Model the fold of this input.
Amino acid sequence: MGAINAVTDLSVEDGIALITINYPPVNALSHAVREGIVNSMKQAGADAAVKAVVLICEGRTFMAGADITEFGKPPKSPWLLEVIESLENSSKPVIAAIHGTALGGGLEVALGCHYRVAVPSAKCGLPEVHLCLLPGAGGTQRLPRIVGPEKALEMITSGAHVDARTCQAMGLLDELVPEGQLRASAIEFAKKVVAENRPLKKVRDMNDKVEAARGKPEIFSEFRKANARKFRGFLAPEYIIRSIEAAVNLPFDEGMQIERKLFQELMDGEQSAAQRYVFFAERQASKIPDLPDNLPALPIAKVGIVGAGTMGGGIAMNFANIGIPVTIVETRQEALERGLAVIRKNYETTAKRGKLKTEDVEKRMSLLTGTLELEKLADCDLIIEAVFENMAVKKEVFAKLDKIAKQGAILASNTSYLDINEIASVTQRPEWVLGLHFFSPANVMRLLEVVRGAKTSAQVIATAMQLAKKIGKVAVLVGVCYGFVGNRMLAARQEQATAMLMEGAMPWDIDKVLYDFGMPMGPFAMADLAGLDIGWNKETSSSSTVREVLCEMDRRGQKTGAGFYDYDEQRTARPSPVTEKIIKDFMSKAGATPRQLSEQEILERCIYPMINEGAKILEEKIALRPSDIDIVWINGYGWPVYRGGPMFYADSVGLANVVAKLKEYGPKLGAGFSISPLLERLAAEGKRFQDLK
Ligand code: 3H9
Done:
């Protein structure tokens, strides 16, 4: 007894063997962990003094899954299935003792144990779907046997982390034990199992729930139908459904074979490669190479927001949600009241959907203070300006804030395009100034572009990155340029989409191609949603573009019932003959002959110029790494995660192919278009963006 290997310890207390795994940070089931468990089980099995076994983890969590870093490498025995068999086939009861998160392969290991106990703060889940996988170590076969196929479908296709109490209610956990006393309580539980001579409960043999669902294919067809929108484009949910169908219709061992086959197909596919890449890309984004290690974040106990419009209100909610008081400043009382009322309505809607307790609506609202005096922001640790997108206006606000804000306060602008350095220049403290570019709706969208000015201090950046995580955002550090990473690339796409209108493609043709690619909507549907009059000026409008003409006709998007599309009462979009005529009139005035653009051309002309712009962004060091650009597009613009982001997508298409196509389309791409030297170099060298170090 004692150390089994570098990550596993085996000890015996009062006849109970304790297998303790210690493999930081998340006890992922790497080879050493698997080997440690199997060897411990052998020893515990052979030791006559051992009556039962407890499997427990050190550190912040129970096993959080298979080791994702091992995927794609040659598998090494013992495999996870052997580990689980060694637990399930043990002649002595095995109890999983869970804290933190038992996820993926970790939960599958726990399902291989005869009993499961957990502390109330623990969570269980099978999140493989987020990696475009299915639980491949029996999860799709065992979970339905405990919780029934309906709940298993929900839990595995959503990948949700389910809290311990709900798990106990579903029968997934046998007992909850006091917080902080897992080890002692699990040993007590094991002793009870021995004393009462309880049976070795093997989940594989629990057939009641799956048998009850046999001959009811509607369980699956209805689930497919109800979730069709949510699953659009994703492979894994359908594979998961099929695997659970096998659990219902076949004996356990045959179901396991189906699970294995489906798992392997997913693992070998492009979607899983993309989603595994995104998993690490997201974590990489928070790592800033030139910040000193362990630079402490500044405390942010009070936040000020200038502007109670859609953005300001949404931003405020992020902080109220985590208990940070926010003071919101407006220039007019009615605008302030309207802003606060919108926030309240948002919270109430969430409460109505059961996602927020009614008392929490009041609690959060009570953290928000509205005022008309900028001076009230004097004691804020962070002030975020969210006023009209105009440099002169923003400068005026910052000059005032510089006089009002206390020393050591961070001053942020929520600008989407403007030069943070110019904004910072009107203050005496440019090192305290940065951009925090939230995406609309700011309380929902996960992306935060943290814009580093030329003088922004390291500590201010570190604080912003950590704060972003606290409010549930994915932060990406970007440099100063027009539109930063996201909107700058969006502009490249928009330019092409607009140009194609003048060649014969209609807005709905272009939107359809991007929707089918997996985007939530195309550029014209997006423009209608945002409002066509953003940046439009009635006084200077001169019917010079399709968009201007639409605005002049009061077709300003969804809010006016018409824009590029016509909308009915339910806001369902229909292609508009009015828009079509406007476009055709423009074409005939320009003497252009419409032609049929293929879906391939539409897709390539929308996306390849974006990739090219992304490469320029890398050359100019506006983004730290290609994967950061991908994280921006996935979290800020709904780029389909199963395509890994635009830069990953470019790698999978092949950079030489991208360059060849850009050259072919060259004359159509506009006078200002040029191919990025970085893109051209990588293509010539046969390299990928992922090879950039
Ligand atoms: C699976 O199990 C397949 C099986 O069904 C079948 C097999 C046959 N492996 O997120 P954090 C690293 S698929 C390797 O920042 P948090 C992560 O990269 C797996 N590494 O912490 C990071 O490294 P670094 C199913 C992993 O507290 C560090 O741990 N399981 C793994 O915010 C900290 O991570 C999942 O999909 C892993 N499995 O969140 C669970 N997990 O510090 C995936 C994490 O170098 N994990 N790392 O950047 C999570 O959801 C979160 O990490 C967790 C902690 C909630 C656990």
Remarks:
- The CA atoms of residues 332 and 468 lie 30 Å apart.
- The chain has 29 helices and 20 strands.
